[in-house]
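Researcher: Structure prediction, please.
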Amino acid sequence: MRRQIEFKIAGPGFKKEMPLQDILAGLQEFQTILDKSYLAVTNGHRMFARDRFNLSLQVKDFRRGSFVADLQLLCLAVAQTLPNFPGIQIKDVWDVAKNSYDFLKLLATKRSEGVEPNITVNGDNLAPIIIGNNITISNVVFAAADRSEPNFKKLTSLIRKDHIDTISTLSADNYGIVVTESDKKLFNPKTIIDRKIFTIECNIIRYDKFSRRGKLFLYDGQEIPAREYQFKQVRSGDSSRLILAMAREKVVVEIHKEIEIHTSGVERISSLLIMNFVDIPDDQIELF
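Model: Predicted structure follows.
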């Protein structure tokens, strides 16, 4: 399966010259978004040589006018319907990437309005189904969106006043992703740190020692509402504690809240900063 895609960066900063740093950064984030969509579709964890053979993004031509590159997305039909995601095929990678962005933008828009939507992960329909404050999204799009959210944030952060106005990736039928200044504000709201220390009981769901970030579930009946939260590791020496914590159903930690302030004035918790583990002292962090 081949799909022709136009990748375009436009703005005043590109009228005469084309800053290579911005071009490379935009293309890199776009490639990573496609990679993560492919991994969500195939239920993989990293790109191997065979995956690069199955999925490739090739530059066919550059055209004048801002920065415009004609790309070709090649997805080999090496798999039929995948057992982990019924109804989803490798050729759907582009649709998964596009719908991941739509889903993330929908969440960011609702949260900027002070609404925390109810998300149901179910079914194989790629596009989000919205009924009031309830959103139903397929397993594969949810997985792709969860993985690629940092890359969409980085892509939108390339938008800068008097330099880059829009970044777009569109197929021949004008189907795809268009990023503007309003998207940058949605995906990258200003944040402040609440200096109050909260002691919480939670379950560490996921942790990446390289980015020092992860996800936790906060149990009910505490000062902070119960739900899943992104978290950031503050102390470099806590990696072993976090790895050990993932083997436990519950841990007690001390945290600060990082709060998003949207242009609408609405505030919401964007992440939790883990400052200390109350129930994992130094003598318990020996892993082997």
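Model: Confidence is low (pLDDT under 50) at residues 77-83.
Researcher: Thanks, that helps.
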